[in-house]
Design brief:
three-stranded antiparallel β-sheet; six-stranded antiparallel β-sheet; Jelly Rolls; 9 strands; Arc Repressor Mutant, subunit A; 11 helices; alpha+beta; globular
Length: 285
């Protein structure tokens, strides 16, 4: 199957069959601005935001726009890439429909992957087959049909993620609060850096916010905020030519020296050393 692309009134969604012969195209810049849902059989190796994954069986990966992704090795069987923009479907806007933000996308536990059993693989392959058929037709409402099938994948994957990570997903009320907190961090991390900022947005005291998140044994809220800021810093250091001072300002720090100290404290190296090490590894690889 060749790459398929549907465009309508700024809304875009594409579908690409991934094989050993064309796997390299997934690393191209043209896909980086899209939200990506990637189905890969066994034998693939890929990196998402500095974390490497190797598929042991059919797996789904959920990759946000501008989130770093690279495929290092392709397996013997073909996979499928769905890529679309926020105009086509935005999980943040439609989170009440699919409840996946913070679990599949913007994953708060750094697990943007889902391993599928035989039954789930059959179901997902069936849905992908329906999407493939819609791309091949010129029937009315095919855009809405494709969007409906995409939502089915996201909803099924969210349910399965919760089943596979019950120790993280319960109790449901605390998890839902955690997802809401994480969404606020994702929206505001460039300009809001303190615990009190998010406590105010949630209409509670910083002490109450700490207690609520402590119940599900995650990092302290202040650490979660800083980790999100520093993940963005790593992306900018690795994949852009921005200077360290420019990155500090971009992330809301008026004092680049303070940003430099924060990065060094959390990563055991300076921003300059991180960039140098990363670029050296890329050349070696």
């Amino acid at each position: 199957m060749k790459s398929q692309l549907l465009t309508a009134h700024h809304k875009k969604i594409g579908m690409l069959e991934v094989q050993h012969s064309n796997a390299y195209v997934l690393n191209e810049e043209r896909y980086s601005n899209f939200i990506r849902v990637l189905y890969l059989p066994a034998g693939y190796t890929l990196t998402i935001d500095f974390k490497q994954f190797t598929t042991r069986s059919g797996s789904l990966f959920f990759i946000n726009a501008n989130q770093y992704f690279a495929l290092q090795h392709a397996g013997s069987k073909p996979g499928v890439l769905l890529y679309y923009n926020r105009d086509f479907y935005c999980v943040q806007i439609h989170d009440e429909e699919v409840a996946c933000d913070g679990l599949l996308f913007n994953n708060i536990f750094e697990i943007p992957a889902l391993t599928l059993g035989a039954r789930e693989q059959n179901i997902i392959n069936g849905i992908l087959g329906q999407i493939r058929e819609e791309f091949a037709t010129q029937l009315s409402s095919r855009e809405e049909m494709i969007r409906t099938y995409l939502k089915q994948i996201i909803i099924r994957a969210t349910r399965l993620w919760k089943q596979q990570h019950r120790e993280l997903a319960e109790p449901s009320n605390d998890m839902e609060f955690f997802r809401n907190f994480n969404r606020l961090v994702e929206i505001h991390f460039r300009e809001k850096h303190g615990l009190a900022d998010y406590a105010g947005l949630l209409a509670m005291t910083p002490k109450t916010l700490n207690k609520k998140l402590a119940r599900i044994h995650v990092l302290r809220p202040n650490d979660l905020i800083k980790d999100r800021i520093l993940l963005e810093a790593k992306r900018l250091l690795a994949y852009t030519p921005m200077s360290i001072k420019e990155i500090a300002y971009h992330l809301g720090y008026e004092d680049p020296a303070y940003f430099n100290r924060l990065f060094t404290l959390k990563n055991d190296c300076t921003p300059a050393a991180f960039r140098k090490q990363y670029l050296a590894e890329e050349v070696a690889g």
